[in-house]
């Protein structure tokens, strides 16, 4: 039975239950396969004096078995805002005693990192200690943000040189990795998965009725609904969607997610006179998200950078076309008209793309077929084959 040790700073916990859920689903799908044993160590950064949200994070550092995966949450010392250069070393130091204990009890076969920084360099130290093969996955901001910092890039390149194999969430992400000087011959594209029992086309009229009941969004005859999904941060481009909404008088906008741009987004909606058509839904459970996606006529996400966003795949699986910017793996997903439109990252282009989708009226079942290749079972099968190759 192959034993996988995965180090993942991106992983849900009691304080942030929606953080890194796609990593949890991936590891749970692998653990569900016969003959695989999966252990995750989820390092949680907490300052020496934990206050505010850090106090809640510290309390969430609770271990247990979740979805068939043994999850060990370990705190490591974090220096907010300036700790980036030392975080990999801090993580490795904090988890090393636990890793040794677990390895002595039942040896691991491979060490895996679910994010390139700081997870990758930390996992490299652990793999070196245990003399095991190393795998590192690139997902988006780890390459596009951390790869732009010299101190992080040096550590990332060293970890990549040590790794037996690397994963990229899209072909576009692989190209970004190559541009940073990471070894292309070791990179395998590994697409995200999808919970097909949840994300499927629901009746639009019924979904809108449930949305009205749950969130108070009232849509009259002839109204269209747009949705965005993601953290409320500048990179995601919600401000551009709000600006585009001012050009779409027959549309309303549902924003799923939380983040520091909540107040500025609301202020922008007020200044443009569209506050009554902008709805902030906050963080949502995956069980509720398909209702929003199925109720929407289009999911609009003009991100400045992405890997291959899970929300893109989930929207398509619910039968809702996309209006997205040319970021990350966008062209790998929007490869036919019914999947949506790739537009320039400005409000005028977004409004034009939305109007084209509204006029086309693509059948939800036809849209959903564009995401047929995605499932957590297929994701786990590909991951298992990749790990087996590295373990030998």
Mean pLDDT: 96
Number of strands: 14
Q: What shape does the CA trace take?
A: globular
Alpha-carbon distance between the two ends: 13 Å
Structural class: alpha/beta
What does this structure look like?
Helix content is 41%, strand content 18%. With 392 residues, the protein is α/β, with parallel strands linked by helices. Strands 3-4-2-1-5-6-7-8 form an 8-stranded mixed sheet, sandwiched between helices. Helix 1 (21-31) links the parallel strand 1 (3-7) and strand 2. Helix 4 runs parallel beside helix 6. It starts with a strand and ends with a helix.
Describe the structure concisely for a colleague:
The protein has 16 helices and 14 strands.
Search tags:
single chain, six-stranded parallel sheet, 16 helices, 41% helix, eight-stranded mixed sheet, alpha/beta, 392 residues
């Amino acid at each position: 039975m192959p034993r996988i040790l995965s180090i993942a700073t991106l992983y849900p916990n009691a304080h942030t239950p929606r953080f890194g859920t796609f990593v949890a689903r991936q590891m749970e799908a692998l653990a569900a396969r016969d003959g695989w044993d999966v252990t995750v160590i989820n390092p949680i950064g907490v300052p020496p004096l934990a206050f505010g949200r850090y106090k809640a994070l510290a309390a969430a550092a609770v271990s247990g078995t979740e979805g068939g995966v043994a999850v060990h949450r370990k705190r490591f010392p974090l220096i907010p805002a300036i700790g980036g250069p030392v975080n990999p070393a801090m993580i490795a130091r904090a988890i090393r005693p636990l890793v040794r204990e677990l390895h002595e009890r039942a040896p691991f076969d491979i060490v895996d990192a679910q994010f390139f920084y700081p997870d990758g360099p930390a996992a490299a130290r652990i793999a070196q200690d245990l003399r095991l093969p190393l795998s590192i996955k690139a997902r988006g901001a780890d390459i596009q943000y951390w790869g732009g910092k010299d101190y992080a890039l040096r550590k990332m390149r060293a970890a990549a040189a040590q790794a037996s194999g690397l994963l990229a969430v899209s072909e576009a992400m692989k190209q970004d990795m190559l541009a940073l000087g990471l070894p292309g011959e070791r990179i395998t594209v590994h697409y995200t998965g999808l919970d097909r029992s949840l994300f499927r086309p629901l009746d639009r009229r019924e979904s809108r009725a449930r949305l009205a009941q749950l969130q108070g969004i009232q849509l009259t005859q002839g109204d269209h609904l747009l949705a965005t999904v993601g953290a409320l941060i500048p990179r995601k481009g919600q401000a551009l969607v709000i600006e585009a909404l001012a050009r779409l008088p027959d549309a309303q906008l549902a924003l799923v997610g939380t983040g520091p741009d909540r107040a500025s987004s609301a202020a922008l909606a007020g200044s443009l006179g569209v506050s009554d058509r902008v709805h902030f839904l906050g963080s949502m459970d995956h069980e509720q998200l398909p209702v929003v996606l199925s109720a929407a006529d289009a999911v609009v996400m003009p991100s400045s950078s992405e890997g291959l966003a899970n929300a893109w795949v989930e929207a398509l699986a619910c039968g809702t076309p996309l209006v997205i910017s040319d970021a990350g793996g966008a062209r790998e997903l929007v490869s036919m008209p019914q999947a949506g439109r790739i537009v320039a990252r400005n409000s005028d282009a977004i409004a034009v793309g939305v109007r084209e989708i509204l006029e086309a009226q693509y059948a939800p079942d036809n849209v959903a077929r564009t995401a047929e290749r995605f499932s957590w079972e297929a994701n786990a099968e590909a991951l298992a084959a990749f790990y087996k190759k590295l373990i030998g």
